[in-house]
């Protein structure tokens, strides 16, 4: 076969230190696979390109003059890469255990599988949500109203999920569950793009990532379109990645929050009815209005230091901007 077997696509935006650790883990643990690494830098201001040229000269670097988002930048790597497989990998991730060659052998032995997700761990090695059913109005209702905060203990949610899964229904059960069933290969609706192995043949058939998604939901949309074309998406628990989620964006980023709402609407416009989009808009606006009211009510009774004031201002701006978004 001409060219490398695998193209590793990493998108960077002001994540220099995390990216260095990510690349070190790739070159240390991606043994037994012929691979190339393409880093697309979305106009970072933290000297990421200089670090790459100095410390990882073997990396193929694409430098953008503007932030093209996750989908747009990954499409650049897909076009440039030569691998039979493409691994989408977040820069705030490091390989933990298992072998990429295992994943590739699984894909080779299952020609019907177009995408393969893996086990994603938090920094404390607890299991991070890495796959789910496709979004629907109920999932977005649960997320918007943050009902998981009623049961903040993962241990309690796990017990409820295991004991009452037959009563809760798949959506609510999945929302509450902790991944106690993470030890077997199984088909899933979609898997996270934090670490997702895809067949180039499948991408060529369904099309590149939809650049209407700036960030979030583009991996869900990609898997949805794979299902539409008859490809399977599977979860492979024998390869583990630690994902330092949120460390590249900070504690609360208003722009990230708003972009997530935009992507949610774009996904529903593509795959749901107009009525569903209107109902989604009603759910989101109601939930955000309640959050704003809660912040306004609590503020006078809480001793607020300067840092908290700035955090509140960020949330106010993000919530108001999200409420003002038009669903169409």
Give the helix/strand layout.
Elements: E1 6-12, H1 16-29, E2 35-41, H2 48-55, E3 60-63, H3 69-80, E4 85-89, E5 93-97, H4 100-109, E6 113-121, E7 131-132, H5 137-144, H6 154-176, E8 186-187, E9 190-191, E10 195-199, H7 200-206, H8 218-228, E11 232-243, H9 254-271, H10 274-298, H11 306-324
Parallel strand pairs: 1-2, 1-4, 2-3, 6-11
Antiparallel strand pairs: 4-10, 5-11, 6-10, 7-9, 8-11
Descriptive notes:
The chain has 328 residues and is an alpha/beta fold. It has three domains: 6-130 and 179-243, Spore Coat Polysaccharide Biosynthesis Protein SpsA, Chain A (Alpha-Beta Complex), CATH 3.90.550.10; 131-176, no CATH class; 254-324, no CATH class. It is 47% helix and 18% strand. The protein has eleven helices and eleven strands. It has helices at 16-29, 48-55, 69-80, 100-109, 137-144, 154-176, 200-206, 218-228, 254-271, 274-298, 306-324, and strands at residues 6-12, 35-41, 60-63, 85-89, 93-97, 113-121, 131-132, 186-187, 190-191, 195-199, 232-243. Strands 1, 2, 3, 4, 5, 6, 8, 10 and 11 form a nine-stranded mixed beta sheet that branches. A two-stranded antiparallel sheet has the order 7-9. Strand 2, helix 2 and strand 3 form a beta-alpha-beta unit. Helix 5 packs parallel to helix 10 (274-298), helix 9 (254-271) runs parallel beside helix 11 (306-324) and helix 10 runs antiparallel to helix 11 (306-324). The longest helix is centred in the last third of the chain and has 25 residues, at 274-298.
